[in-house]
Amino acid sequence: MENNIELKIWGTRGSVPCGSAEFMKFGGDTSSYTLQIGDVLRFLDAGTGITRASQKLTPEINRAYLNLSHGHADHLNMGCAGSMYFNNLENGIYITGNENAKNSLDKFFDGKDLWPVPLSQLGGLNKSFHLLEGGETVQYSDSEMQTLANYHPPKGMGGSIGYRFNIPTADGNVSVVYTTDMEFDYTPGGIVQPKSAEMKSAYVDFIRGADILLADTQNTNEEYNVTTKFVRGFGHPTVEQIVDLANEADVKTIIGTHHSPSHNDELMSSLETHVRDYATGEGFRGDFVYARDGMTISLGNTPLKRAGSYELAA
Ligand SMILES: [Zn+2]
Ligand SMILES: [Zn+2]
Predict the structure, then answer these.
(1) Bridge partners (DSSP) listed for residue 152
(2) How far is the CA of 75 from the centre of ligand 1 (A)?
(3) Which of 40, 170, 205, 259 is the most buried (most CB within 10 A)?
(4) Could you report the per-residue pLDDT of 162-175, keeping only the tens digit for each?
(5) 149 C-alpha vs ligand 2 centroid, how far in Å?
(6) 152 CA → ligand 2 middle, Å
(7) Ligand 1 center to residue 42 CA distance, Å?
(8) Which domains are present in the chain?
């Protein structure tokens, strides 16, 4: 049990939390996931689901990371998560993210206007921030972490960071990719993205052969191209695009997330059927599922911890 590799879904909603009953099945909390690899716990983003996700910080966890995609409020609303203030980890939770994530942490925990406690008093966090631009490969004892700069406004390229964890196990490599808040076809103002083709190509390379692709699928093609075209340039892809790119990359399972606040459970269920039909029609041989609150994905039980320190090279 303590050696399990497990991905768990705690917050699926994009943009704002949706707390009412019609969102409970697919989830109302914003972006929050945990990836446990033996005694290492990785928080993927810190949206409002982080409060419940902190349950995973059990005594068997010896090292924890918070891997932030970027610093927008729906990914960094962790004011009330007690584990960020204190925990039993020797060095606290290590944080990685882009410059925007670092700035948001500094601003949010300002000790006055936005939150009463300043960052300096969050004893549960390690104060060294591992700044990422995308394109890095970092070797940890539990996994190899690769990163990708994605396009997300207002910064544009590098506005969000995608993560890929290649986890060595006794039965071979397990790979889990998390990419959210990225857009390929348009820029703010509905202007066509001139680098769309090369961005898609880089994305396909990044997700190639992944066992799990946990990806932003906020819009549908119909919304993006017909009914709500104004969302072009808001920084999110369509679910059909993600299926197409995952198909090209031979991904095994897509877990669509960052659900639109306008998609209630009834609509999500019918969209899921639509996406599966679309995927089958396109010849996708993997699985597609929309992330549901509390969903747990077991990815094996024999991670190979490499000898030495937790972080082997920066
Ligand atoms: Zn977001
Ligand atoms: Zn965002």
Answers:
(1) 156
(2) 6
(3) 259
(4) 999 999 988 889 99
(5) 13
(6) 7
(7) 19
(8) 5-303 (3.60.15.10)
